[in-house]
Amino acid sequence: MGWHQELLVGFDLETTGTDPREARIVTGAVIEVRAGEPLGHREWLADPGVKIPADAVAVHGISNERVAAEGEPADRVADALAEALVSYWRTGVPVVAYNAAFDLTLLSAELRRHRLPSLADRLGGTAPAPVIDPYTIDRRADRYRRGKRNLEAVCAEYGIVLEAAHNASADALAAARLAAAIAVRHPEIAALGPAELHRRQIEWYAEWAADFQAFLRRKGDATAVVDGLWPLRELTPEAV
């Protein structure tokens, strides 16, 4: 039985912006999935402590008024999310996140911002793993397919129903189902154990970033830099 038929944990954040080192958590979801069926589900609504820009509200539909009235303190949400994820990693259960480098970097920045233990600290000094990122895997397994690679487009490619895009719970469930669907279509992915798949994704992401950076520079942006670290980017002092 491959990893895609075992317990997976979908994870997603909706946020105040697109820079993972600066944006804040608005909602977060963690959902247990086995054989495509949800087993358990937790979702948090945070008051991010800053105004949610109008363009972010337009994406996820969560207003400043709602977070002020219903949201938990941002530090409490970040801590709860980190503890939830770490509880799965401690037992070897893969955490699935679409474009994991965004969500995990953002969560890590929030932990630092609120002076909370990092993911690695909670894991006794080891990096969080295994992580399964359908974005990174699909881009490697079907690298020449044309079209967009956002969650909605890739779900459509693999026949996964995304019930409400940019809803943290819906996106987390879709990511877990998508990971399994990719493994079914690509047996060479299914054959890898979670630890080996995690290691391969580090390599695949770095290779993609180097290629994309070279492409941008050939097109005239001589200073283009594409971060090749996965699943966590380095945090800068500005993230505090």
Automatic annotation (TrEMBL):
Alphabetized SUPFAM superfamilies for the sequence: Ribonuclease H-like (SSF53098)
Protein's UniProt keywords contain Amino-acid biosynthesis: no
CDD domains referenced in this protein's UniProt entry, alphabetically: DEDDh
Single GO cellular component term: cytosol
Record bears the keyword Hydrolase: yes
Domain Exonuclease: 7-188
Pfam families: RNase_T
Keyword set, alphabetical order: Exonuclease, Hydrolase, Nuclease
MF-aspect GO terms: 3'-5' exonuclease activity; nucleic acid binding
Domain of life assignment: Bacteria
InterPro entries: Ribonucl_H, RNaseH-like_sf, RNaseH_sf
Protein name: DNA polymerase III subunit epsilon
Organism: Streptomyces griseofuscus
